[in-house]
């Protein structure tokens, strides 16, 4: 069971960081100045503890209430938060210096012991942390003196700081120890050092946050945030339109046209840390043949598909890494990877080289009513042009996910995942490790080998140019062997009613409530 | 009025039979570059998000939307009439077992059973049609049985028995024609219920594969396009409503007309 892995990716998927909204359009509110924000998410938060609520709705609140030891700056580089600085005495250890005079919202002082325990608890089976997979390389966490925390890893891990920026949320040891299994629940709640404190947390009637007047950092402009869940996209849009809701991140780029036309509402889209792709099960019949896989890659009109699925707020994917990760890794010096342009003649030529020159028929399960249904219809129409007939098999969403995660009946699958860090090592093991090719893993292609696993292990400890070269080599191999057909990257979006603005949001740190402010403040 | 209703249903049947040939475009042909668009000279009811012609899909989808409910209605009517006649005429242990079974079946939440059967257990669309026929049957059995109980005591039925006619002949040659008004109207009501229920299943995304031209599925697939091309989802709703209403009213009229014919 690799639930933590799933959770890590799904959570990351849902973290959907808000990218640079700097420069986003702002409309000045004409009404009275307001410092209470009504926020709606598309799902209800289930826990204020990342160990038990590692999902978008929950982490949105956690990030407002709980500080992490480090954070990520706009470029995705680890930056100080509760830790003012850190050193790396050896390749497999870090030593953090704690910010002084920080208190929890109950008035108790933050200690190094609190910080150390907040990380080590994720390794405790009694906690059963959903973030445990982020810290599998953590060997030991200890308070050193009153203001330092030492973390020893089992092996060098360049992604440690990035994942710590998401999941090393600091809570009082006393509270966390007393509630290993239900910290963050409505009954227990949580206490943090963040810019907000929890005034109310209910699974059914919503959450209310109030500004932490003793916050150590810049005080948020909002005094109060009321959070509700509206799961139906159209209902959410109507709620924003009517003014019942002031802001939301629950809009889909595909629906951009519906949102951008709303009077009194400003929508902003920004690159999301996500990747949509087709997974081709390399062990399944015709898909074993690399020429078939290349034929499929050539036959799918990704440009049209990107326009369809992103409403113009997305880009064609050239590799299996999310675009912000590519940008963080390569900057402007993006290497050229094997790419398969939409070319039916080339697709037919590739198919002619395979054992299936006349095509074949393959069953394709999909989740009814999902984006996947639309994508697979378009893909099926494209592949039919070269003789590959996909038989669509509808399934309820939950059942489809269960079947998919069990890796049953894998063939051609549409997958769209989002991640939380700028680290390729967060994504690549999902794609090509043999461990992830087992049930509950995300390697739906089944592509992998002992040699690739060794290269992934080496990548985890690589830095600088060596790291970049290793990622390039892996992406090149994926491009040549085509276990995946990258489709598109979809922008994330945020909608704000007039009267509120948001500046300084970062794809790597979606702390919405700290950066949304009443217009003019 | 009856002529109008019959005409509407007749038209629906013609479209169901020949809709694919009448469609101005290939109902499956996609034009992603065009995407969703409102009505135009080329596409009278616009297109859906995959750029498919809505009118063509409506015409081609009529067959799927109407054929399956007809099968349900035929299955339900055949089963319920046979079993209702049998229970009401033979009475005794046959009646007792059948009625307790009917009581049990009526207590079951039909739609939920269908969703579990088709959605969770993975039965195909054919299974949902078969299950629907079975699930719709108990109510009709009870109605037919109660009518049979009344008819079997009438003089013509008594005379038939006195003549020594076998029960099957009495039931199907003498009693059944006198139940015809109810049987016919029940059949039409079953058709309507199946039409709406199957559209509901399609709307829930259970049953027909995505992309199949089908009115219920079109409502589900295009409901997010209301702002961009409302016809893509409104038109199939209107057609489902029109056919269902016509069939219901026609059933009423036929019941009245056949009832006035008197018993034989």
UniProtKB/TrEMBL annotation, chain A:
<dbReference type="GO" id="GO:0015833">
    <property type="term" value="P:peptide transport"/>
</dbReference>
<dbReference type="InterPro" id="IPR030678">
    <property type="entry name" value="Peptide/Ni-bd"/>
</dbReference>
<protein>
    <submittedName>
        <fullName>Peptide/nickel transport system substrate-binding protein</fullName>
    </submittedName>
</protein>
<feature type="signal peptide">
    <location>
        <begin position="1"/>
        <end position="22"/>
    </location>
</feature>
<dbReference type="GO" id="GO:0043190">
    <property type="term" value="C:ATP-binding cassette (ABC) transporter complex"/>
</dbReference>
<dbReference type="Pfam" id="PF00496">
    <property type="entry name" value="SBP_bac_5"/>
</dbReference>
<dbReference type="GO" id="GO:1904680">
    <property type="term" value="F:peptide transmembrane transporter activity"/>
</dbReference>
<keyword id="KW-0732">Signal</keyword>
<feature type="domain" description="Solute-binding protein family 5">
    <location>
        <begin position="78"/>
        <end position="428"/>
    </location>
</feature>
<dbReference type="InterPro" id="IPR000914">
    <property type="entry name" value="SBP_5_dom"/>
</dbReference>
<keyword id="KW-0813">Transport</keyword>
<dbReference type="InterPro" id="IPR039424">
    <property type="entry name" value="SBP_5"/>
</dbReference>
<comment type="similarity">
    <text>Belongs to the bacterial solute-binding protein 5 family.</text>
</comment>
<dbReference type="GO" id="GO:0042597">
    <property type="term" value="C:periplasmic space"/>
</dbReference>
TrEMBL record, chain B:
<keyword id="KW-1003">Cell membrane</keyword>
<keyword id="KW-1133">Transmembrane helix</keyword>
<feature type="transmembrane region" description="Helical">
    <location>
        <begin position="228"/>
        <end position="250"/>
    </location>
</feature>
<dbReference type="InterPro" id="IPR035906">
    <property type="entry name" value="MetI-like_sf"/>
</dbReference>
<feature type="transmembrane region" description="Helical">
    <location>
        <begin position="183"/>
        <end position="208"/>
    </location>
</feature>
<dbReference type="GO" id="GO:0005886">
    <property type="term" value="C:plasma membrane"/>
</dbReference>
<dbReference type="GO" id="GO:0055085">
    <property type="term" value="P:transmembrane transport"/>
</dbReference>
<feature type="transmembrane region" description="Helical">
    <location>
        <begin position="101"/>
        <end position="121"/>
    </location>
</feature>
<dbReference type="InterPro" id="IPR000515">
    <property type="entry name" value="MetI-like"/>
</dbReference>
<feature type="domain" description="ABC transmembrane type-1">
    <location>
        <begin position="66"/>
        <end position="251"/>
    </location>
</feature>
<protein>
    <submittedName>
        <fullName>ABC-type dipeptide/oligopeptide/nickel transport system permease subunit</fullName>
    </submittedName>
</protein>
<feature type="transmembrane region" description="Helical">
    <location>
        <begin position="66"/>
        <end position="89"/>
    </location>
</feature>
<comment type="similarity">
    <text>Belongs to the binding-protein-dependent transport system permease family.</text>
</comment>
<keyword id="KW-0472">Membrane</keyword>
<dbReference type="InterPro" id="IPR050366">
    <property type="entry name" value="BP-dependent_transpt_permease"/>
</dbReference>
<keyword id="KW-0813">Transport</keyword>
<dbReference type="Pfam" id="PF00528">
    <property type="entry name" value="BPD_transp_1"/>
</dbReference>
<keyword id="KW-0812">Transmembrane</keyword>
């Amino acid at each position: 069971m690799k639930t933590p892995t799933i959770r890590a990716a799904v959570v990351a998927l849902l973290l959907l960081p808000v990218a640079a909204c700097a420069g986003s359009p702002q409309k000045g509110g004409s009404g009275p100045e307001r410092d209470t924000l009504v926020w709606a998410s598309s799902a209800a938060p289930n826990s204020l503890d990342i160990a038990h609520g590692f999902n978008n709705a929950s982490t949105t609140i956690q990030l407002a209430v709980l500080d992490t030891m480090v954070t990520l700056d706009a470029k995705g580089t680890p930056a100080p938060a509760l830790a003012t600085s850190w050193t790396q005495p050896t390749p497999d250890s870090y030593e953090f210096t704690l910010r002084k005079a920080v208190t929890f919202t109950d008035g108790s002082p933050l200690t190094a012991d609190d910080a150390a325990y907040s990380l080590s608890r994720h390794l405790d089976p009694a906690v059963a942390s959903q973030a445990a997979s982020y810290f599998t390389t953590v060997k030991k966490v200890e308070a050193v003196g009153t203001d330092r925390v030492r973390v020893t890893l089992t092996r060098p891990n360049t992604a440690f700081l990035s994942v710590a920026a998401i999941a090393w949320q600091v809570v009082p040891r006393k509270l966390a120890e007393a509630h290993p299994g239900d910290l963050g629940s409505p009954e227990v709640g949580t206490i943090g050092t963040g810019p907000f404190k929890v005034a109310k947390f209910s699974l059914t009637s919503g959450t209310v946050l109030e500004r932490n007047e003793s916050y150590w950092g810049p005080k948020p402009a909002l005094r109060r945030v009321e959070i509700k869940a509206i799961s139906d996209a159209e209902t959410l849009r109507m709620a924003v339109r009517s003014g019942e809701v002031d802001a939301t991140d629950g809009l889909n780029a595909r629906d951009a046209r519906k949102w951008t036309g709303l009077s009194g509402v400003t929508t902003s889209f920004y690159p999301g840390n996500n990747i949509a792709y087709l997974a081709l099960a390399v062990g399944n019949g015709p898909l074993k043949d690399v020429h078939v896989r290349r034929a499929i890659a050539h036959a799918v009109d990704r440009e049209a598909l990107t326009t369809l699925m992103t409403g113009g707020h997305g880009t064609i994917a050239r590799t299996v890494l999310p675009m912000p990760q590519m940008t963080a890794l390569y900057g402007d010096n993006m290497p050229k990877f094997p790419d398969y342009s939409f070319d039916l003649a080339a697709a037919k030529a590739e198919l002619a080289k395979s054992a299936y020159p006349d095509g074949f028929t393959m069953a394709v399960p999909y989740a009814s009513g999902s984006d996947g249904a639309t994508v697979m219809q378009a893909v099926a129409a494209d592949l039919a042009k070269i003789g590959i007939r996909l038989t669509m098999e509808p399934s309820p969403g939950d059942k489809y996910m269960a079947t998919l995660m069990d890796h049953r009946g894998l063939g051609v699958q549409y997958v769209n995942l989002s991640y939380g860090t700028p680290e390729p090592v967060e994504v690549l093991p999902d794609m090509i490790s043999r461990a992830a090719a087992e049930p509950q893993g995300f390697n739906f292609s089944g592509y992998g080998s002992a040699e690739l696993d060794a290269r992934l292990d080496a990548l985890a400890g690589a830095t600088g140019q060596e790291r970049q070269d290793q990622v390039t080599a892996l992406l090149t191999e994926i491009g040549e062997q085509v276990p995946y057909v990258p489709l598109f990257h979809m922008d994330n979006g945020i909608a704000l009613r007039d009267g509120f603005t948001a500046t300084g949001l970062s794809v790597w740190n979606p702390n919405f409530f700290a950066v949304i402010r009443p217009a003019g403040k | 009025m009856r002529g109008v209703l019959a005409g509407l249903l007749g038209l629906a049947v013609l479209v169901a039979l020949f809709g694919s040939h009448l469609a101005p475009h290939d109902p499956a042909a996609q034009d992603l570059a065009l995407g969703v668009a409102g009505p135009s000279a080329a596409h009278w009811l616009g297109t859906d998000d995959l750029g498919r012609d809505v009118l063509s899909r409506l015409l081609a989808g009529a067959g799927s939307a109407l054929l399956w409910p007809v099968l349900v209605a035929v299955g339900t009517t055949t089963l319920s009439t046979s079993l209702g006649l049998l229970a009401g005429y033979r009475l005794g242990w046959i009646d007792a077992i059948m009625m307790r079974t009917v009581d049990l079946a009526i207590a079951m939440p039909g739609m939920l059973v269908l969703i579990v059967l088709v959605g969770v257990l993975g039965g195909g669309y054919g299974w949902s049609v078969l299950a629907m026929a079975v699930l719709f049957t108990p109510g009709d059995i009870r109605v037919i049985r109660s009518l049979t109980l009344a008819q079997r005591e009438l003089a013509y039925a008594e005379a038939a028995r006195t003549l020594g006619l076998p029960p099957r002949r009495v039931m199907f040659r003498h009693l059944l024609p006198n139940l015809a008004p109810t049987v016919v109207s029940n059949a039409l009501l079953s058709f309507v219920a199946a039409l709406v229920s199957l559209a509901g299943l399609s709307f829930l995304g259970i049953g027909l594969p995505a992309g199949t031209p089908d009115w219920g599925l079109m409502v589900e697939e295009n409901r997010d396009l209301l702002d961009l091309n409302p016809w893509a989802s409104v038109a199939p709703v209107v057609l489902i409503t029109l056919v269902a209403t016509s069939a219901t009213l026609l059933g009423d009229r036929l019941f009245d007309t056949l009832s006035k014919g008197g018993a034989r």
